[in-house]
């Protein structure tokens, strides 16, 4: 089937004619999977493919055993009816594919019965009783879920369409597929034409119905927007939601979620209109997005910035499907390394090929690298810098977040950072305050603490000025003012990122230099220098969130409190309990903690225009949390009151704790001294690691008051 979206037929009579045409497909499917995929699957087996085929058959057989269960919609996310309708679209897909593979009409009959049951119910539905205010659905509480349902369901229809009678087909089209597609498009233009992951799912669903049923009007709407102007629709989604590096503006968690409708709809376009060369569009932006999704992970889990649930990783269904599509196009054998870790493959020609590579032991490692992923459609909205040493399972990774806001799912944490090492998240990000699909936790919604804590600046490793979040936690203001990725350098000695933000607080410029230093004889360590410039005195708080058990510290005038006090009234501070505090010396303050079997030390100091003593406050989450929604995490907060100021520090992994064999080695920090030197046009942080040498971070400033714009790390050759 060849449908050109460039020729749009809008005459009502033509649309009615199209709606009445029998939409029987050939025996081979015509959307994401094609005859090539079915042939490859029928001639293959064993390995991961055999396991994946067996799993699909188990899902289909279990569905046939349970019969047709189509409950009247009642529950929000996580409730019985919500979850049953999710099970139904997955069961229809599995059974439809099983019919394609086996020809057994028991599977196609199940799909037909399920579709007829929905066709009988859908015209009777009003808005869902638990509807979301802005984007209500009918089958589901929000139309996003309805679009996901349709993306799967139309493929199930496509698998079995040849078995339908004329009457069955017309009922399914006119009472189900077309009404759902209409509701998601003309029924909700505010979502369908939105440049957002909800819009992506909607256009994919409607466009795939168009291809499956010869509805050119649906295809045109999906590709170029409801008014066919090209100002919205799938091409605009591709143009606006990804940076030139394939970074999705909402961050890795939502990049993963949005990836499936992007690659599945693109595959449907490629199947039906190969001359469009959709996977070559915008310099291969979708293939870049797939690779970027892989690379924004550590030890199998996605980097949890913005509204991220922290247990999502590379085994997710979205990336399994995308990986096979990418391999089918590129034949890049390193993708098999990711498939091996996923422990299953897509049921497609690409999945067959990946399974064969793994079975033949021909896997080559995926090439994770230090890199900046630019943000924004034109790559001018800052960037996410990843600095790596070693492999992606146990090596070191520093994440510097110098990005845009990330729309409504973004957090107010520009110039924040994270550190991973030894397979663990060491310097942490909270992610989202949400228990997905756990009905007892606000129906699986984002919790109110997502706004009051998780999104606030103090919940991250970013500077807080005057105990207020960046941009006053104003989303519209934050969306308009991205951070700046000033510089990035990767070398044998160190990877370095410089980020800047001068619009988060009036009259305050923030610059952060992060370096992952790679000594030859010691573990990689992190240098962090935050420069703050202002004409007025402010309170500067620098939170440091870490995971592990505190071993010791060297703070003076230290006191612990019998009664823990709440640290503030708003901006996240209302959730922080002050456990203890001490005075911070100008330099060489140290905290050591243990995580898993490795020790970590945080050595830190500060520099100010006048001699100002600092404080270090230890806190734990849990205040003003009556429903116990927050995790009981910990951190410390460094506090200064000054005009200009510099926070500097080193985070250093060292030693080993072995509980099994009862030994401990190198539990003390190797950092002997930190010395910060500053002049008008440059500054230095000298890290003395004793027998392992001195490493000097040299930062250059263009002129007074502009912050560092260039940095390098050298080993002192004069020691």
TrEMBL record:
Domain Heparinase II/III-like C-terminal: where?
A: 375-632
- Record keywords: Lyase, Periplasm, Signal
Q: Where is the Alginate lyase domain?
A: 70-290
Q: Does the keyword Signal apply?
A: yes
Cite the SUPFAM superfamilies for this sequence: Chondroitin AC/alginate lyase
Determine if Signal is one of this entry's keywords: yes
Subcellular location per UniProt equals: Periplasm
Record's signal peptide: 1-27
List the protein's name.
Heparinase II/III family protein
Q: Which organism is it from?
A: Gilvimarinus gilvus
């Amino acid at each position: 089937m060849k449908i050109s979206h460039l020729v749009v037929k809008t005459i009502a009579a033509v649309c009615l004619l199209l709606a009445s045409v029998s939409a029987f497909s050939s025996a081979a499917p015509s959307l994401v999977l094609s005859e090539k995929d079915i042939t490859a699957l029928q001639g293959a087996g064993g390995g991961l493919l055999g396991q994946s085929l067996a799993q699909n058959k188990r899902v289909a057989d279990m569905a046939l055993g349970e019969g047709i269960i189509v409950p009247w919609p009642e529950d929000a996310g996580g409730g019985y009816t919500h979850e049953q309708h999710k099970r139904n679209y997955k069961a229809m897909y599995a059974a439809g594919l099983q019919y394609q593979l086996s020809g057994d009409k028991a599977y196609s009959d199940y799909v037909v019965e399920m579709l007829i049951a929905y066709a009988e119910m859908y015209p009777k539905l009003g808005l869902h009783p638990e509807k979301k205010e802005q984007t209500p659905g009918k089958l589901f509480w929000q139309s996003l879920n309805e679009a996901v349902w349709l993306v799967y369901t139309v493929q199930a229809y496509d698998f079995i369409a040849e078995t339908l009678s004329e009457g069955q087909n017309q009922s399914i089209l006119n009472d189900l597929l077309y009404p759902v597609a209409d509701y998601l498009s003309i029924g909700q233009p505010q979502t369908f034409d939105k440049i957002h992951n909800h819009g992506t799912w909607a256009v994919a669903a409607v466009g795939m119905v168009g291809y499956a049923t010869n509805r050119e009007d649906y295809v045109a709407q999906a590709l170029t927007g409801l008014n066919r102007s090209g100002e919205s629709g799938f091409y605009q989604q591709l143009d606006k939601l990804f940076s030139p590096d394939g970074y999705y503006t909402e961050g890795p968690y939502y990049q993963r979620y949005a990836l499936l409708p992007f690659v599945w709809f693109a595959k449907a376009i490629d199947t039906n209109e190969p001359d469009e060369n959709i996977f070559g569009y915008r310099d291969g932006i979708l293939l870049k997005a797939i690779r970027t999704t892989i690379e924004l992970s550590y030890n199998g889990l996605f980097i949890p910035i913005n509204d991220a649930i922290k247990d999502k990783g590379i085994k997710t269904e979205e990336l399994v499907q995308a990986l096979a599509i990418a391999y089918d196009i590129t034949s890049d054998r390193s993708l098999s390394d990711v498939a091996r870790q996923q422990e299953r493959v897509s049921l497609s020609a690409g999945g067959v090929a990946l399974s064969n590579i793994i079975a033949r032991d021909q896997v080559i490692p995926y090439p994770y690298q230090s890199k900046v992923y630019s943000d924004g459609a034109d790559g001018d909205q800052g960037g996410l810098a990843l600095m790596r040493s070693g492999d992606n399972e146990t090596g070191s990774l520093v994440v510097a977040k110098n990005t845009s806001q990330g729309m409504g799912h973004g957090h107010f944490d520009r110039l924040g950072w994270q550190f991973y090492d030894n397979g663990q998240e060491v310097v942490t990000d909270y992610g989202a305050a949400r228990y997905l699909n756990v009905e007892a936790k606000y129906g699986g919604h984002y919790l109110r603490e997502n706004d009051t804590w998780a999104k606030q600046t103090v919940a991250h490793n970013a500077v807080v000025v005057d105990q207020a979040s960046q941009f006053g936690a104003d989303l519209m203001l934050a969306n308009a003012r991205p951070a700046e990725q000033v510089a990035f350098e990767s070398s044998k000695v160190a990877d370095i990122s410089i980020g800047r933000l001068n619009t988060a607080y009036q009259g305050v410029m923030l610059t952060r230099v992060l370096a992952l230093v790679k000594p030859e004889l010691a573990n990689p360590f992190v240098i962090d220098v935050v420069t703050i410039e202002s004409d007025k005195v402010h309170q500067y708080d620098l939170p440091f969130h870490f995971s592990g058990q505190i071993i010791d510290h060297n703070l003076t005038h230290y006191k612990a409190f019998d009664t823990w006090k709440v640290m503030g009234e708003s901006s996240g501070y209302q959730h922080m309990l002050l456990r203890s505090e001490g005075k911070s010396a100008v330099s060489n303050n140290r905290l050591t903690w243990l995580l898993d079997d490795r020790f970590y030390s945080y050595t830190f100091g500060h520099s100010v225009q006048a001699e100002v003593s600092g404080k270090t406050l230890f806190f734990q989450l849990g205040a003003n949390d009556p429903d116990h929604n927050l995790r009981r995490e910990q951190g410390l907060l460094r506090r200064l009151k000054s005009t200009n100021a510099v926070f500097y520090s080193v985070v250093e992994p060292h030693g080993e704790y072995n509980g099994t064999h009862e030994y401990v080695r190198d539990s003390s920090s190797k950092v002997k001294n930190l010395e910060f030197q500053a002049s008008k046009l440059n500054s230095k942080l000298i890290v003395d690691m004793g027998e392992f040498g001195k490493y000097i971070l040299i930062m250059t400033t263009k002129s007074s008051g502009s912050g560092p714009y260039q940095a390098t790390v050298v080993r002192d050759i004069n020691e």
